User: What shape does this take?
Amino acid sequence: MLDAPAVHRLLAERLPAHAGSSTSGLLATPVAGLLDPGALPGRLRGLSRLYRTDDPHTLGTLWWYSASSVVLAPTVESLLVTGTALDPGRVTVYAHPDGRMLAARSDAVCAEPGPALAGVIGAFADLLGDALGTSTRPFWAIAADSLANRVLWAGGTGETAVALAAGVGASLPVPRFVSVGGQQVVRRASCCLVYRAGGAAKCVSCPRQSPEDRAARLRAVFGG
Assistant: This one.
């Protein structure tokens, strides 16, 4: 197994735009800090101006939609690109002062990425479920879509994403994909709720639209 510095060197060579490629000027917070329940309300309030809403459920969902894509990226990218997984529990996230999470790096590797990912995703799902008084299932669904998108970004396939998700366990929904313009695209099971924010439209791949509308909007972006 490679060590973390060797993994980072290979990522820089083989996937120059990996999640930890640019951290300059960003604010660093370790995963443990993101999981501090006392800090979460302030983080969500900080996003209210960006998204123009004060609804805690919408803000919490948007926060995790962003966080999950960034937090899971070092593990997924490193595993696909180098064969060695960086530890999701040792990730440091780098954020813009306005709260947007833009980069992440991990300083250690792990032998069993599936259980490690399950632990981190479960901790965030429990944090948000407790804070917002909701089921944790939507947060697991968001994580599944984030994992699947990161697999595709790193050059993997839908089959790779399904296999990695199986290693995480039954709480993580099985990623789904559609072919659009000859490309595999994640068929999202989760909604980020951005359309509830001020003036925002539903995402192109939003599951809360008719299948016909979603297919048409995806074809407009990817062709086919």
Observations:
- The chain has eight helices and seven strands.
- The beta strands are 27-30, 85-86, 91-95, 101-106, 109-110, 177-180, 183-186.
